[in-house]
Amino acid sequence: MSTLSIIIFLPIIAALFLFFTRPSIAIVKTVYMIVTLSVLYLAVGLYIDFDPAKSMQFIEYHPWISEYGINYHVGVDGVSLGIVMMNAIIMPLVTLALHKLRDKNGYWINLLFVQGGIMGAVLSLDLMLFYLFWELMLLPIFFMLGLFGYAKKNYVAMKFNMYTIFGSLMMLIAILYIAVQYKEQFGSYSFDLDELKKLTLSTRESLLVFSGFMLAFAIKIPIFPFHTWLSDTYRSAPTGIVIVMSALMAKLGVYAIWRFLFTLFNETSHAVAPFFIGIGLFGLIYFGFSAMTQTHIKRMFAFSSASHLSLIVVGFFIYDVYGLIGSSYLIVAHALSSAALFLMVGIMFERTRAYRIDDLGGIARVAPKFALLFVFFSLSIVGVPFTAGFVAEVLIILGAFKYNIYIGLLTTTTILIAMLFMFKTVSKVLYGELSEATKDFKDLRLHELVALVPLALLILAMGIFPNYFIKKIEPTAESYSQKIGVIYND
């Protein structure tokens, strides 16, 4: 079994073992930590061994349901490598920072299923395999919302489930349609991404199939107007699930646009690019202003994430190599920052039992280490110099100006908008008078620092030494840019 297969199936096998044996919560958490740290160790080795001069690597192919062209085909390139590393880094940190919040076996077992599902989806090079892992990723989220959520958890779980089922069904119909069309043109079924590149579809067919895929991805990201599940879900979801949804699952949605839509429907993607650039620009401004109006801190960060995800969509659809690299970099940068901030929100809730921003305040007076890291991660979301977000946003803005000067000007507004809602939140949460909820606020404990400091150091490293990380992405971005006729200038 290759490294990629171990990374995919180790969490799934461990989750199945824990589900059927039902050990104590202490054993469940121990197994969770061992498994996620093992995945991290393998992922770091994968990152070190990845050759920046090549694109798709560590390919593993095994016939599976050969009669219908379904095979086990996985591989990793510079873009998927970033999501693999995010998944591997973030998942063990969840239990380090939040181990007191949930003492339920199912919480950690479901998170292992989610980790395996995300790994499988991001590494799949077969459409049916991708769909199966996509569903495996989503199902535990539904259970966790219903079992461990807050407030209107049953309503929120059903709403989220209906949205995602509808999107997944449209994607499945699109997958089956192109497999049937491949059989009509070549005499056999195939779901393999490389083989499906040969497929010829009419303009109408291509647009319809593109729409089926895009609907599933748009709901998961989410982009306007498919975001109506977002605020209630983030508000009601347990912190661990919010971290997974914001830092990992949403990023998988934008990654899938690159991997599948740009690969299989490049001409259609190019044709509809102005539409999605417009939707993305509207979304980054709309979600940014929505974040400013929120009184619930998780809902505020939910809209903040949606604003930056809209910027990533713009970066992809401007079809410029700087935009491609910048968006790929922002996927990683924003995942690290948002995961850290949601971890800190979970820590705040553990101490104060409050999510309302007006119930918080004065934390900097009693918890300077907490305040310092909260400010740092907030500034990294904004994209201040020497953070990973700054490098990513500058690259996207450069690509946007190359595409169109007015698009470039609008894209720069994301920095100003992010400053407005982040500084407003920071000032209310950290400064001012101590509230009833925060008067006994305790500063970060050792295990919480162990979870948060590595994220801060990695964000700094990506901001100060970006070339080391970008060189892993660049060959993949260049190969895509050459396919669409974009000239890359050093």
TrEMBL record:
Annotated localization: Endomembrane system; Membrane
The UniProt record lists the keyword Magnesium: no
TM ranges: 6-23, 30-50, 70-94, 106-125, 131-150, 162-180, 207-226, 238-258, 270-289, 301-322, 328-349, 370-397, 403-423, 449-470
Topology class, membrane: Multi-pass membrane protein
BP-aspect Gene Ontology terms: ATP synthesis coupled electron transport; electron transport coupled proton transport
Protein origin, superkingdom: Bacteria
Transmembrane helix is among the record's keywords: yes
Keywords, sorted A to Z: Membrane, Transmembrane, Transmembrane helix
A single cellular component GO annotation: endomembrane system
Every NADH:quinone oxidoreductase/Mrp antiporter transmembrane domain range: 124-416
Coiled coil: none
Pfam families given in the database record: Proton_antipo_M (PF00361)
GO MF term set: NADH dehydrogenase (ubiquinone) activity; NADH dehydrogenase activity; ubiquinone binding
Family in the record: Belongs to the complex I subunit 4 family.
Name used for this protein in its record: NADH-quinone oxidoreductase subunit M
Organism this protein belongs to: Candidatus Sulfurimonas baltica
